[in-house]
Write a structure and sequence with these properties.
heterodimer, A: alpha/beta, nine-stranded mixed beta sheet, B: alpha+beta
């Protein structure tokens, strides 16, 4: 059975976070949101027209993920309609995983009930921090009490809850470890821990360039990351990817699909998809995306057909991100000094695979470059 | 028009670089009607793209102009456009030998420069009639009176002898042609004597083989005759001969006093080297034209392909370049750090740069050039002398009695306010000042005896920077001189990087080693692992620096499965990495191999 995944990008936010460079907008109203939902339904229909087997019994949906932006910005009725016109039209596997992202400030009990009833069985909460100063710095519209309420609510209502944390300015290992303890104690079984990245064009980049904000030194960030990974493991959530930690069995099956190069359909502005040998990307802007759909066209900004070399490169760098690591036979000969890396704690080589450890994950870009150079 | 010696004038233009030599040649071609407007493009005689781009002349270009003067008299004017750069000193001297007169061109804004003076001396050595020319008189900043004074001081001419022109606007060009006709003596020489023709340049033509550019002094050479090249006694049949206008104009013969070309059919320009003499095989002349010397490379550098699989292409490209450039030498070389490559010899730094640039541009090669260095004479304890042009191949110090390095006489002309800094940078490079004279109230000529190795490293750049670009430099080889020299090795992660080895004065070894290590630390990017950089003389480590690995280099999020961004970045980086050389497990950027050039003293 050839299952597939679905990613739906909901581009609306209540306010824009200082660091965010994704396709998102804070300028929206009920009619824009409704137009988006109709657009996503149309996109799915259009794609199914082109590939009738999609979502049929021979090709069921295994996972779906509503990301953003902020999916919790959608009114409950719109969410139901969005799901009905996309996920709801597909045959689904028995263990179908349906994740939706939410911001704590919009994640309310009524919304949670609608989501659960609509089939959402996994919630990913963008907590980022439980420290008021850190949240302000990041431009988050949420305060610690709200975040705590949302965490408790999510854990009470959903069997599987993930929470995002960010290592950014003002975050110390001591406060972060306490926060992670609290989250896990609350019932969170999955944590995504990101190191803050400064992307050009964001408010954060402007502040950093203007000298208004000083980023913590790499050494400190690295130490915090390693300490958090160690703590999460001791709490029963071992690392299974560069930025992801989970209780055994609680890993995100949807995200694993990305790392294992399984096919998925991307819907919505800025959404990416992978199908056949192609990587597809939709228009970032809501209007451009809607315009194409209105004209009966796929709203794609680009379709890259991957060469064999590109596929090989993808498979190595994606596998490198994961706990399972890379089979040695996928790696170009001589690209890495295996013994030295093992001696310095970057990775372990066993059972014919190379698996990164924390310090290796921290230098993964460098390792990828070395591999890419020889591929 | 038949050749009549009395109505022929052979002359060249000598000038400091950028003083408008090629533009002046263009204008002469235009005014004499050799070129019509539609043929006109700037620097007509500079046929290589590089020559046009850099505004320099690399090869000598002779051209014959048939000129009817305002009185209706007909003349044959042979102009030999000479290379303007100090690297091509010998070529210039051969071109001068082919002439009876020289236009000494000085820029009206810049005045007399170092090469002006050196070229003047060269022209005087050849007994040429000198016509002083002030160019660029149209520029607002022109200081015509000032340059007139300089000329009077320099060559003792009368003010009215100086011709003032603007090669750009054409002003004064007719006067200049009149001066050439009036003041350059006609060629002499017996057309019936045995043939004696001086080769002042040569080029390779894929169809007719090596073509010698010659000045016939005596006798006559005709198509179909068998000629002999004096130094190597090779004989060739004259396939074609004639003179140049914009193309080769074939003639039946070339006779005493004429300038033209001889297509020899030789497979290699090295058989018809600049400075050699061509005569007839059956009735040879007794002696060659004096002054023949094989151009000797002064500066050496290892050229290596970044990607090893470009080795064969590099070999082929060097062979092709050598067809047309007899002064380029190379031999195969192996470097532990860089793999297979070539040790190339050049006339000077500009020659090196030109060759490297042509290899990269015209042949699409991606190269690493090692630090330019010079040829050392190494006296061994057993009394033998070895030549060494690759520091990494210096014999074991225990076997060495002394090392001698080439010393040049460098002359610097600088505005007087920069005298202090000029002397300072020269002393810092082990220079010894031998002369200082005021050329006028503003300008000073200073001479130094300077190790050539110090000069090729960074002297010229430094000179330009401390004098805000005003100083000019010329130099000539003096002798080899023994000094306290040691070999400084660079190690990366404990491995010798032979391509970074250099020879330095013992007193400077420590500070050099330290600065070199610091510079390499800046130039070598952070890597996966710690990189240790050491400088050592023999087994003694003088300095050490460390490039720390990345503590954090992680793009954690591939949001919504967007792996394409990452993949494209990696593919782009991979292209960028082609500019890096893998030495052991360390990636070293090309510019690191020239790190020494960037070290501040």
């Amino acid at each position: 059975m050839r299952a597939f995944g679905m990613y739906v990008h909901v581009p609306f936010c209540g306010s824009i976070c200082a660091y965010c460079h994704f396709a998102r907008t804070a300028e929206h109203d009920a009619s824009r949101r409704a137009a988006f939902v109709e657009g996503a339904r149309r996109e799915f229909a259009l794609r199914r027209e082109l590939c009738p087997s999609l979502g049929g019994a021979g090709r069921p949906l295994a996972t779906a993920y509503l990301g953003g932006g902020t999916p919790s910005q959608l009114e409950p009725a719109l969410m139901e309609r969005l799901l009905a016109g996309t996920v709801g039209l597909c045959a689904r596997t028995d263990d179908f995983e349906l994740t939706a992202e939410a911001n704590p400030e919009t994640f309310t009990a009524p919304l949670a009930r609608v989501w659960r009833d609509a089939g959402i069985n996994r919630v990913s909460l963008g907590v980022q921090s439980l420290d008021a100063a850190v949240l302000r710095q990041l431009g988050r519209a949420c305060d610690p009490p709200t975040a705590r309420r949302a965490l408790a609510l999510a854990c009470a209502m959903f069997g599987r809850v993930s929470a995002d944390w960010i290592i950014g300015p003002g975050v110390t290992a001591a406060t972060l470890l306490d926060e992670l303890d609290e989250a896990v104690a609350c019932g969170v079984g999955h944590v995504s821990l990101y190191i803050l990245e400064v992307h050009a064009g964001t408010a954060l980049a402007t502040r950093v360039e203007g000298g208004l904000l000083k980023l913590p030194p790499d050494e400190q960030v690295a130490a915090t990351y390693l300490a958090a990974a160690e703590r999460l493991a001791s709490l029963g959530l071992p690392q299974y990817e560069v930025a992801n930690f989970a209780r055994p069995g609680a890993e995100s099956r949807h995200n694993r699909g990305y790392w294992q190069r399984r096919p998925w359909l991307g819907l919505g502005p800025g959404a990416h998809g992978a199908w056949g040998r192609c990587r597809r990307a939709n228009h970032d802007g809501l209007d451009a995306w809607l315009a194409d759909l209105g004209a009966g066209r796929l709203p794609e900004a680009s379709v890259d057909r991957l060469s064999t070399a590109s596929r090989r490169l993808e498979r190595v760098v994606l596998a490198l991100r994961t706990r399972e690591g890379v089979p040695l036979e996928w790696m170009p000969a001589g690209a890495l000094d295996l013994a030295r890396g093992q001696a310095e704690g970057l990775w372990r080589v066993a059972d014919g695979r190379l698996r990164l450890d924390g310090p290796g994950f921290l230098r993964i870009d460098t390792i990828e470059e070395a591999l890419a150079r020889r591929l | 028009m038949a050749f009549n010696r009395e109505q022929a004038r052979n002359f060249c233009i000598i000038a400091h670089i950028d003083h408008g030599k090629s533009t002046l040649a263009d204008r002469l071609l235009e005014v004499t009607g050799t070129l019509t407007g539609k043929d006109m493009q700037a620097q007509v005689l500079d046929s290589m793209d590089l020559e046009r781009e850099r505004g320099i002349t690399i090869k000598s270009h002779p051209v014959r102009m048939d000129y009817r003067d305002p009185d209706g008299k007909q003349w044959v004017l042979n102009l030999i456009d000479t290379p303007g750069h100090v690297d091509f000193h010998y070529e210039v001297s051969r071109s001068l030998a082919a002439c009876e007169g020289a236009l000494l061109v000085v820029d009206a804004v810049q005045g007399v420069q170092a090469q002006t003076i050196n070229n003047l001396y060269l022209a005087l050595e050849h007994d040429l009639a000198i016509i002083p020319v002030i160019n660029k008189i149209d520029l607002p900043a022109a200081r015509v009176d000032y340059v007139i004074d300089q000329f009077i001081d320099l060559i003792g001419c009368a003010p009215e002898e100086i011709v003032k022109v603007s090669a750009k606007t054409g002003e004064g060009i007719v006067d200049l042609l009149k001066a050439v006709v009036d003041r350059v003596p006609p060629p002499t020489g017996d057309p019936d004597a045995p043939a004696q023709a001086l080769i002042f340049d040569s080029m390779f033509d894929a169809y007719v083989g090596a073509v010698a550019y010659v000045r016939v002094f005596t006798g006559t050479i005709a198509k179909g005759q068998k000629i002999r090249v004096f130094s190597n006694e090779r004989q060739f049949d004259v396939g074609d001969l004639g003179y140049f206008q914009l193309a080769r104009i074939s003639q039946k013969g070339l006779t005493a006093g004429e300038v033209g070309y001889i297509a020899t059919g030789a497979k290699d320009v090295r058989h018809v080297r600049v400075g050699d003499t061509i005569t007839l095989a059956e009735t040879p002349c007794l002696a060659p034209w004096p002054g023949y010397a094989e151009a000797k490379p002064m500066v050496f550098s290892g050229l290596y392909p970044v990607e090893n699989d470009q080795y064969d292409e590099l070999l082929e490209a060097l062979q092709k370049l050598q067809l047309n450039d007899a002064s380029l030498t190379w031999e195969k070389e192996t470097s532990a750090a860089l793999g297979f490559g070539f040790r190339c010899g050049f006339l000077g730094l500009l020659h090196l740069e030109i060759v490297q640039e042509r290899l990269e541009r015209e042949y699409g090669l991606n190269l690493i050039a090692t630090l330019p260095n010079v040829e050392y004479e190494v006296l061994l304890r057993d009394g033998t002398v070895q030549l060494c042009e690759n520091p990494a191949l210096l014999p074991d110090p225990k076997l060495i009695a002394e090392i001698r390095e080439p010393i040049v006489r460098a002359s610097v002309i600088t505005p007087k306010e920069f005298v202090g800094p000029v002397i300072q940078i020269s002393l810092d490079r082990r220079g010894v000042q031998t002369k200082m004279e005021y050329l006028d109230i503003e300008r000073v000529n200073i001479e130094f005896d300077l190790p050539l190795n110090e000069l090729v490293v960074d002297y010229y750049d430094k000179l330009k920077s401390v004098t805000k670009g005003y100083a000019s430099l010329d130099y000539e080889y003096l002798r080899h001189r023994a000094d306290d020299l040691v070999r400084l090795d660079l190690k990366i992660n404990g491995d010798d990087v032979d391509a970074l080895t250099c020879i330095v004065h013992k007193d400077n070894a420590y500070s050099w080693g330290l600065k070199l290590c610091q510079k390499l630390k800046e130039l070598i990017p952070r890597q996966m692992f710690t990189v240790a950089i050491q400088a050592a003389v023999g087994s003694r480590v003088l300095a050490r620096t460390t490039v720390q690995p990345f503590r954090k280099n992680v793009t954690a999020k591939c949001y919504g499965g967007d792996i394409s961004r990452k993949r494209k970045l990696l593919e782009k980086q991979k292209e960028g990495k082609k500019r890096m050389k893998q030495v052991g497990a360390v990636e070293i950027p090309q510019e690191a191999f020239l790190a020494v050039l960037k070290v501040e003293r």
